[in-house]
Design goal:
The structure is a single chain. By secondary structure, the protein is α/β, with parallel strands linked by helices. It folds into 2 domains: about 210 residues, Quinone Oxidoreductase, Chain A, domain 1; about 130 residues, 3-Layer(aba) Sandwich (Rossmann fold). The chain is built from 11 helices and 18 strands. Strands 3, 5, 6, 9, 10, 17 and 18 form a 7-stranded mixed sheet that branches. A 6-stranded parallel sheet has the order 13-12-11-14-15-16, with helices on both faces. The two termini are about 25 Å apart. The structure holds adenosine-5-diphosphoribose (APR) and zinc ion. The site of zinc ion has 6 residues, from loops. Its EC number is 1.1.1.1, 1.1.1.284. This is S-(Hydroxymethyl)glutathione dehydrogenase/alcohol dehydrogenase.
């Protein structure tokens, strides 16, 4: 039986402002059906920023981070499919595995998910502050920590040839982007696509679009450097976002794209999305907005033009099926994931990484342990 561990983690407190504290916590051993993972890489994702900037409420104090890969270090009772030493990618949407949605191949639609509330499947946490109070791993991962405990089904074994930093991204941004293209939008070769927002998620969508054979692939951002990055991973055109976006996209796509993705989580760009697609086209919402906001859409245009709105949660991923597919495509040289990582930082540099994200700099920072 494994012992409790002393771990270093990036923690968000009620009085933190937008700063994380890197501090020492206690991590209890994995319980039944759980595994402890030595985290080797953790991506700095827009969803963490939503929390730190006060846009989403989560249980506090929160051990931040949810995009990670590492090595299985200890296994709890009843764990059959993982062994100490396995390389794994962590899934942050931890569906119940039993309901009709889960068994029907739609785990992302599970209504019994506890991980959204930072809880393990039994409703508890393995983290404690040094004075004994519960601390809550964001999305039941808490990846910005040298060790984590997660349910065994959330630790997906990955080919050891995939470097940890790349593997970490497959757990959120890359997996989400791939899933949005393949599972949600079901893009086929030759379709015209536009991606609004070329951050970690948007660039992942673009690289998956190239894999799917979409053409043209139009990237939209407000930062010219992001359009350069987008071209490196497969965008054929780049546009600076603004009020004339719909006519600019129409000019490049003979009247509108077949499929458009919003990968920022801004109400204004989400509302703009249906105007970028042709009649019968698909508008896919991938970016997650702040809580409690509503969208205004041209209702007649939606109905009359038969436009299809698709909500995408975690790219409709089935992690155990899709993570290995993404890893295989990377190893085959079909997904340019190395291009997505702009910097590797230490846990102590976590606040600088979020500041860079707020300034619209860097494609993806990855914390390495
Ligand atoms: N028009 C176009 N691009 C914009 C605009 C705008 N008005 N405002 C911001 N952007 C660009 C930024 O320049 C940046 O390149 O959107 C991108 C956002 O990328 P990141 O900050 O790296 O965020 P990311 O991690 O990709 O997450 C995006 O997806 O999963 C969700 O919660 C996540 O809502 C977040 C979204
Ligand atoms: Zn994420």
């Amino acid at each position: 039986m494994a012992e409790s561990l002393t771990v270093r983690s990036a923690v968000y407190h009620a009085d933190s402002g937008d700063r994380l504290a890197v501090e020492t916590l206690t991590l209890d051993p994995p319980g039944h059906g759980e595994v402890r993972i030595a985290v080797r890489a953790a991506g700095v994702c827009g969803s963490d920023r939503h929390v730190i900037d006060g846009e989403w409420n989560v249980p506090l104090p929160a051990v931040m981070g949810h995009e990670a890969a590492g090595v299985v270090e200890a296994i709890g009772q009843g764990v059959r499919e993982l062994a100490v030493g396995d390389h794994v990618i962590i899934a942050w949407h931890q569906a119940c595995q039993r309901c009709a949605e889960c068994t029907g191949g739609k785990p992302w639609a599970c209504m019994r998910v506890k991980s959204n509330d930072s809880q393990l499947p039994d409703g508890t946490t393995r983290w404690r502050t040094l004075d004994g109070a519960a601390a809550w791993p964001y999305l039941a991962v808490g990846a910005m920590s040298d060790h984590v405990v997660v349910p065994d089904f959330a630790a997906i074994k990955v080919d050891e040839r995939v470097p940890f930093d790349i593997a970490s991204l497959i757990g959120c941004s890359v997996g989400t982007g791939y899933g949005a293209v393949v599972n949600n939008a079901k893009v086929v070769a030759g379709e015209a696509a536009v991606v609004v927002g070329a951050g970690g998620v948007g660039l992942s969508i673009i690289s998956a679009l190239r894999l799917a054979g979409a053409h043209p692939i139009i990237a939209v951002d407000v930062t010219p450097e992001k359009l350069t990055e987008a071209a490196r991973v497969g965008a054929t055109h780049g546009l600076i976002g603004g009020p004339n976006l719909a006519s600019e996209v129409a000019a490049l796509t003979a009247g509108g794209a077949d499929v458009a993705f919003e990968a920022i989580g801004r109400i204004q760009t989400m509302a703009q999305l249906p105007a970028l697609i042709r009649p019968g086209g698909r508008a896919v919402f991938v970016g997650l907005p702040p809580e409690g906001q509503t969208l205004e859409l041209d209702a007649l245009q939606l109905a009359y033009d038969g436009k299809i709105i698709i909500g995408s949660n975690y790219g409709g991923l089935v992690p155990a099926r899709d993570f290995p597919r993404v890893a295989a495509a990377y190893l085959a040289g079909e997904l340019p994931l190395d291009e997505l990582i702009s910097s590797r930082v230490s846990l102590d540099e976590v606040n600088d990484a979020f500041d860079a994200m707020r300034r619209g700099e860097r494609t993806r920072s990855v914390i390495v342990f």
